[in-house]
Design goal:
Blueprint: E1 2-9, H1 16-27, E2 39-45, H2 51-66, E3 72-78
Length: about 80
Amino acid sequence: MKISAIVTLKQDVLDPQGKVVGQTLKNMGYQNIISVRQGKYFEIQLDETNKEKAKKIVEEIAQKLLTNIVIEDCKIILE
Protein backbone atom coordinates (compact mmCIF):
# COMPACT_ATOMS: atom_id res chain seq x y z
CA MET A 1 0.00 0.00 0.00
CA LYS A 2 1.33 3.44 -0.93
CA ILE A 3 0.77 6.34 1.46
CA SER A 4 1.83 9.95 1.03
CA ALA A 5 2.89 12.25 3.85
CA ILE A 6 2.98 15.98 3.17
CA VAL A 7 4.86 18.00 5.78
CA THR A 8 4.45 21.79 5.82
CA LEU A 9 5.32 24.56 8.20
CA LYS A 10 2.50 25.57 10.51
CA GLN A 11 0.61 28.66 9.33
CA ASP A 12 2.02 30.89 12.08
CA VAL A 13 5.66 29.91 11.31
CA LEU A 14 7.57 32.16 8.91
CA ASP A 15 8.52 30.48 5.63
CA PRO A 16 11.48 32.38 4.14
CA GLN A 17 12.03 29.84 1.34
CA GLY A 18 8.38 30.04 0.30
CA LYS A 19 8.60 33.84 0.38
CA VAL A 20 11.66 33.82 -1.92
CA VAL A 21 9.93 31.44 -4.36
CA GLY A 22 6.82 33.62 -4.34
CA GLN A 23 8.81 36.79 -5.01
CA THR A 24 10.79 35.07 -7.78
CA LEU A 25 7.56 33.96 -9.45
CA LYS A 26 6.29 37.55 -9.33
CA ASN A 27 9.58 38.72 -10.85
CA MET A 28 9.05 36.16 -13.64
CA GLY A 29 5.73 37.83 -14.48
CA TYR A 30 3.28 35.74 -12.45
CA GLN A 31 1.63 38.73 -10.80
CA ASN A 32 -1.42 36.77 -9.61
CA ILE A 33 0.66 34.85 -7.01
CA ILE A 34 -0.62 35.64 -3.50
CA SER A 35 1.74 33.47 -1.46
CA VAL A 36 3.83 30.29 -1.58
CA ARG A 37 4.51 27.83 1.26
CA GLN A 38 7.13 25.12 0.83
CA GLY A 39 7.24 21.71 2.42
CA LYS A 40 8.36 18.09 2.13
CA TYR A 41 6.64 15.21 0.34
CA PHE A 42 7.17 11.53 1.22
CA GLU A 43 5.83 8.42 -0.51
CA ILE A 44 5.91 5.40 1.78
CA GLN A 45 5.14 1.87 0.60
CA LEU A 46 3.97 -0.53 3.30
CA ASP A 47 3.37 -4.26 3.29
CA GLU A 48 -0.05 -3.76 4.90
CA THR A 49 -3.54 -4.31 3.51
CA ASN A 50 -5.56 -2.75 6.34
CA LYS A 51 -5.93 0.96 5.48
CA GLU A 52 -6.51 2.14 9.06
CA LYS A 53 -3.52 0.18 10.33
CA ALA A 54 -1.33 1.53 7.51
CA LYS A 55 -2.45 5.10 8.18
CA LYS A 56 -1.68 4.69 11.89
CA ILE A 57 1.82 3.37 11.10
CA VAL A 58 2.61 6.30 8.80
CA GLU A 59 1.20 8.80 11.31
CA GLU A 60 3.55 7.33 13.91
CA ILE A 61 6.52 7.50 11.49
CA ALA A 62 5.68 11.11 10.63
CA GLN A 63 5.43 12.10 14.28
CA LYS A 64 8.66 10.35 15.29
CA LEU A 65 10.87 11.14 12.29
CA LEU A 66 9.45 13.14 9.39
CA THR A 67 7.88 16.07 11.23
CA ASN A 68 9.17 18.60 13.73
CA ILE A 69 5.87 18.76 15.62
CA VAL A 70 6.75 22.13 17.15
CA ILE A 71 6.79 23.99 13.81
CA GLU A 72 5.37 21.56 11.20
CA ASP A 73 2.07 19.90 10.34
CA CYS A 74 1.67 16.62 8.50
CA LYS A 75 -1.13 15.46 6.21
CA ILE A 76 -1.44 11.73 5.44
CA ILE A 77 -3.02 10.66 2.14
CA LEU A 78 -3.97 7.04 1.45
CA GLU A 79 -3.61 6.06 -2.22
